[in-house]
Amino acid sequence: MCANLLGGSTPPTLLKITIMNKEKTIIKALDSGWYKVEVTDKYGDWTSVCEETVDDCQAFAKEWLNNTERRKASGDSWGECVKEMIKNDREAGRSWE
């Protein structure tokens, strides 16, 4: 649904920018009457969603930033799993290079 909201002839109105360390939150008004929030955490991971109100955008950004460490741990764990699979493949004589 967000993709349909981003179209339009006039550029969106910038409402709010919050920058803390590397964390960044940008909220923009769209022509459709909805709002787009872009959030970047301290590790550079980011996301963007459309919400109906600025309050909804702020709530989403707060929740997303509160989960920064959980997402980082999950990504690190996934990276370790991939390294282990590559190691196991090489030990078994399989090469994907």
- Helix and strand content put the structural class at alpha+beta
Instruction: Summarize the biggest pleated sheet.
Output: 4 strands, antiparallel
Specify Rg, calculated over alpha carbons.
Answer: 19 Å
- Helix segment count? 3
Strand order of the largest sheet: 1-2-3-4
Shape from CA axes? elongated
Total beta strands: 4
Strand percentage: 25-35%
Mean pLDDT: 84
Could you explain the architecture of this structure?
The chain has 97 residues and is of the alpha+beta class. It folds into 2 domains: 2-66, no CATH class; 68-97. The protein contains 3 helices and 4 strands. It has helices at 2-5, 54-66, 68-91; strands at 13-20, 23-29, 35-40, 46-51. Strand 2 (23-29) and strand 3 form a beta hairpin. The radius of gyration is 19 Å and the shape is elongated. It starts with a helix and ends in a 6-residue tail after the last helix. The relative contact order is 0.13. Mean pLDDT is 84; it is low at 1-9.
What characteristics describe this protein?
97 residues; alpha+beta; elongated; 4 strands; 4-stranded antiparallel β-sheet; 3 helices
